[in-house]
Structures are given as structure tokens and as C-alpha cells.
Amino acid sequence: xxxxxxxxxxxxxxxxxxxxxxxxxxxxxxxxxxxxxxxxxxxxxxxxxxxxxxxxxxxxxxxxxxxxxxxxxxxxxxxxxxxxxxxxxxxxxxxxxxxxxxxxxxxxxxxxxxxxxxxxxxxxxxxxxxxxxxxxxxxxxxxxxxxxxxxxxxxxxxxxxxxxxxxxxxxxxxxxxxxxxxxxxxxxxxxxxxxxxxxxxxxxxxxxxxxxxxxxxxxxxxxxxxxxxxxxxxxxxxxxxxxxxxxxxxxxxxxxxxxxxxxxxxxxxxxxxxxxxxxxxxxxxxxxxxxxxxxxxxxxxxxxxxxxxxxxxxxxxxxxxxxxxxxxxxxxxxxxxxxxxxxxxxxxxxxxxxxxxxxxxxxxxxxxxxxxxxxxxxxxxxxxxxxxxxxxxx
Length: 394
What we know:
Elements: H1 10-20, H2 25-28, H3 32-42, H4 47-60, H5 64-69, H6 72-79, H7 86-101, H8 110-113, H9 121-131, H10 141-151, H11 160-173, H12 179-192, H13 212-215, E1 232-242, E2 246-251, E3 262-263, E4 266-268, H14 273-282, E5 287-299, E6 303-314, E7 321-325, E8 331-335, E9 355-359, H15 360-366, H16 374-377, H17 386-393
């Protein structure tokens, strides 16, 4: 890798960024908290998708104190639709440490930031440089791609040793008094011009004459990255169990995939109609009608769910009671003050078998459900994440 041209890119890059930087809500107020939340949200998520989530999150949790104290269900509901929920759980753990050890403000140094849960080298570099002006790099996928093309790097960018060397070279080349702008300019170049999965727009690039890939017509040869391991596929059957007003949900175990989220009951394999009805009856419900639903697919980072579903209409539950139903067929009914509170009592759900029968409007408002079930919650008239806000605003 020839890094001799790196010191020369700073001036044209910063000049271009000053004129072409996108207007983004977190850039308008680049406090350490804003930078932190935006960078965590932007992991695995497009900028345009993040904007409305960021605005709502900041309105609800404007500082580390509010984030640290937020109840988990509300926190996950605010994050619903962004996915990768461990990101926000780690943010809350970090906020609690910030409140305990740093007086409510994120620490000012890279070395301290990187010790917090969920903050790796990139996020620590972004916060330290953008919010605090420290001359440290922030190397994400965009930056790796840009620097690989500029320097003609033939190494696998997924290797940690390669990333570490990029960070070292950038630290030496970046302007000490404009580190935050320099890091953002590299990210912006990768996001808007030096694009992935297609030809970059080299004609508009401010450093085209300094770029090895452009000068040698090898733009599509970089970056070099090892092929991803093939995802494992799993067949699942999703049951939409409901009466006229309520629907059955359950809480996932506290560890593992989608930990602690609420979900529609679902099972390994593709069940037949008769097998699905047998499962519903095991819970103690009295099915009235069952309808097959359209198949759906959801892709996680390492797993791909291939789902089929059934809508099962069951006899109406009593208005004056909530019912926790276990697959063992046991029923536990508790009187509540009025019908509007029906379904409010939560089950432990730790074994993945216990169901909650909850009014659908409360499910949409209060119970965080992952996007994996979006195709099936539609049959309850529920919208998840950004969709429900767009419907309201429209």
C-alpha cells in the first residue's frame, strides 16, 4: 500500500466538504451525545432511514441521564425498526457508566471512550474528533473503501491488522486542527461519491488526481474483501392468534437473537394447518377459523428466516380479565380494575412458551416487536417502527 499521497488529500478534501456536506440533524448540534447516538444508529442503517428515528429518540431521551434511566421496553420501542437491538442496550449500559463515573458527560479522550460498552475504535474516534477536536481517525467501511482506492491497497480490509494500519497512517496524515472535519469528509466522500457496489463517480471526486484506482482505471478492484460466510437458513411458522380485540404475543428469552423483544408465536419448521391448530389448542384457545398467510423472508446478519403463517381466530377472551397462557394448558386469570387494563400484566416469558393476550392498539404503542414479523403484524392492523409514524403523519 502506497500511502505517500495521503498527506496531499487534506486540502482538496476539506474544501470540497465545506461546500458539499449534507445537512444532517446531528451535525447541527455536534455534542458528544448527539455524535454518539447518531453514529450508533448509523451502523448497519442508511442515513435517510436514521433521520426520523434520531429526532424521536432525542425528543424522548435528550441526554445520557434520560437514556440511563429509561425502562427497557420503552427504550426498545424507541429503537423498533432500526434492528440490531444490542446496539441500544449497550448504549444504555454505557450511559449508566457515564452517569456514575463521568458526571453525565461522555469522557473526552479516545482511550476512555473505547472502554465503554458498544463503543469500538470507529465510534470512539468519531466522538473524540468531532465533539472534542482530538486528532484521532474514525475508520468505518466508507473510509476503508476510500483509502483502499486512493492508495491502491490490495489487502483484505476485513482483517483487523489492515484496519489498524489504516488508522495509523490516517493519524499521521490528518490535519491536527481539523480532525473532526477531515474524518467526516472521508465518510461523506465514501457515502456520496466513492460508492460501494457500483462504479464511483470519479468525475466529481475532489481527490481524483491523487487516487491510484482512478489514475489506473482500477476502481472496481478495490477494496479487497474476503467473501462473507453463507447465511444459515431456518424455516419458521408464525401464528397470528387473535380474537376481535386482542392478539397473542410472547417475550423472547433475555439472551440470544432478538433478546427480550416481543414477538408473534412462532415455531421451527413449516407446520401444516392441522399442526398449527394443534399448537393453538395446546395453549387452551378455542379456534374458530384458520387462514393461511403469505410466506415472508427476513434476513439477519448470519441467519435467514423463511416463514409461513396462519391467522387463527379464537373465541373472545373476557373483557374483565387478563390471561397468561402457557403451552402446558394451564390458565391463570386475574381480575383487573377495568376493561381498558386487560392484558396489561406481563408474563415472564423467559422460557419462550408463555403468551400475553393484549389489545392490538397497546401492542403497537407499548410492546417492541422486531421487524422480522412486519409481514405478519400487518394482519393485526399494526405498523412497526417508522411505518406507524408515517401513517399517522400522512
